Amino acid sequence: KAKIRQVSRWKHEDIVERHKARMEKNPDAMKKRAAIVEHPFGTLKHRAGMNHFLMRGLEKCRGEFSLMTLAYNFSRVLKILGKGFIQDYCVQRSIDFIGN
To answer: Transposase DDE domain spans which residues (predicted)?
Structure first.
């Protein structure tokens, strides 16, 4: 058996402790944050069936997640700006391209 025990801390443990203390002081802020942040993840899981990754490996999963979030963000843009805006933009770009 070792005669000496050594305890080490993760290098960012102080940041985690400060964050935890801040959240304990203001639990309503955490509830509001969770309500805003969790919605897109819930939408991805429900609408796109994103309950697991199809690829293996960190880089491939990052790529898969990036595509899913790109699709989500594009659908949000369509909803906010409207389909007509995107159609008008594409038509204008086509005219500009053909004209040059």
So the answer is: 10-77
64 and 100 co-located in one domain: yes
Characterise 27 by phi-psi region: left (phi > 0), alpha (psi -120 to 50), beta (else): alpha
Q: What is the largest CA-CA distance in the chain?
A: 82
Domain span at residue 24 reads 10-51
Q: How many domains does the chain have?
A: 2
pTM of the predicted model over 0.85: no
Please check whether residue 2 lies inside any domain of the structure.
no
The sign of the torsion formed by the CA atoms of 15, 16, 21, 25 equals positive
Quote the crossing angle between the two packed helices 27-47 and 58-81, to the nearest 10°.
Answer: 100
CA angle 38, 41, 90 (to 5 degrees): 120
